[in-house]
Amino acid sequence: MWQPEITLDAAGLTHVGRERARNEDQFLVARLERNLRVMSTSVREVAPLMSPPRDGTLLLVADGMGGGAAGDVASSVAVRSVIQTVVTALPWSGTLEGPTSGLNIPSPQSTLPGVRRGLTSALVKGDEAVRREAARAGTGKPMGTTLTVAYIQWPYLYVAHVGDSRAYLWRGNELLQLTTDHTLAEKLKERTDITIDDSSPWHHVLWNALGAGETSAVEPEVHRHHLEEGDVLMLCSDGLTKHVEDRVIGLTLDASATASDACERLVNLANVDGGTDNITVVACYCLPLDFSIDSDAPTVAVPAVDTKAITAIRQPPVIQTPLHDDDEDPTQS
Fold first, then answer.
1. Is 162 helix (H, G, I), strand (E, B) or coil?
2. Which of 105, 124, 101, 87 is nearest to 215 (CA)?
3. CATH number of domain containing 231
4. CA distances to 6, 59, 100, 114 from 106, in Å
5. Which of 100, 253, 265, 294 is the most exposed place for a label (fewest CB within 10 A)?
């Protein structure tokens, strides 16, 4: 089955909100070509880095925690660390060399297990980097960050995630939450019959995040999805979902003309409702190749793919991991 040629219209936007003094969120929209070509980011000093030749699109959202400048530092450190791993360790190479050269056989490293290991490694190294920075700072204040990464290698979407930032997919008038909130509230729902009220503080206590989890080792949630023309992918920090319900998010994604327009509309909706936290949104529209986009946002043409030539790999179960996400406590969200 041939997948059509498509254009990826991607954009990101972050806003401090109406109550916080600092913006501790970060985002990234990048194209992995012969090197990492950063299209849009809130992180300073992210230089292009060499990467393997197979193209892809990288989207990322991080929500720092720790109070003062700690959350800002944690999210920045984590993003830089993950980028470094992505462009140096992830196995994006698509074909084997040697006797089988030219046969277009997927290399073992480019299979789902290989990509899954690469993404897991990226988040684990991000966790280690944040912990090292906290020790180096010597302030005694813990720091941590959520991190949600989406890597698109058409027609596949790979998602790696820790914390309570989210990845959504808008398809056929339905909004699907692709990630699990790593909060104590969600863990209690999964493992007990206890009813958790929407106002419960357990919704803001994380059991899994970079640098500040319940355990010394982060446990990334990693999985794969198959994208289709017309899909819209969105990543966001909880500054959006605290104020804008899923139904409105879906309608906004559907009504927006471009990814940039969607980001602006969603951030505005959160601020109108109070803007009690930093707000970050990254959107990516999978459009027909000949679709006209009236926007300055970066777009990427993706060639047709014969999915029959790609070895089918069963999606692994979602991995779960433990943490809080507030201004003063990195496990309070």
1. strand
2. 124
3. 3.60.40.10
4. 22, 24, 10, 11
5. 294
Among residues 141, 179, 163, the alpha carbon closest in space to that of 325 is found at 163
Contact between 172 and 286 under an 8 Å Cβ cutoff? The reply is no
Give the count of alpha carbons within 13 A of 200, CB side only. 14
Of 261, 231, 265, the residue nearest 248 (C-alpha): 265
Residue length of the chain: 333
The Cα–Cα gap between 181 and 321 comes to 10
200-247: pLDDT as tens digits: 665 677 888 998 755 667 889 999 999 999 999 999 999 999 999 999
Instruction: Tell me whether residue 259 is in a domain.
Output: yes
d(CA 293, CA 89): 34
Q: Structure tokens of 76?
A: 């920045």
Q: How far apart (Å, rounded) are the C-alpha atoms in residues 57 and 321?
A: 26
Tell me how far apart the alpha carbons of residues 50 and 46 are, in angstroms, rounded to a whole number.
12
Domain range for 17 is 2-324
Domain total for the chain?
1
pTM of the complete model beyond 0.85: no
Helix axes 112-137, 70-88, angle to 10 degrees: 140
CB atoms within 10 A of CB 46: 18
Integer Cα distance of 316 and 113 in angstroms: 8
332 belongs to a structural domain: no
Residue 82, C-beta contacts closer than 8 angstroms, at least 6 positions apart: 60, 122, 123, 125, 126, 147, 149
Which amino acid, 33? E
Please state, in angstroms and rounded to a whole number, the distance separating the CA atoms of residues 200 and 24.
24
First to last CA, the chain: 43
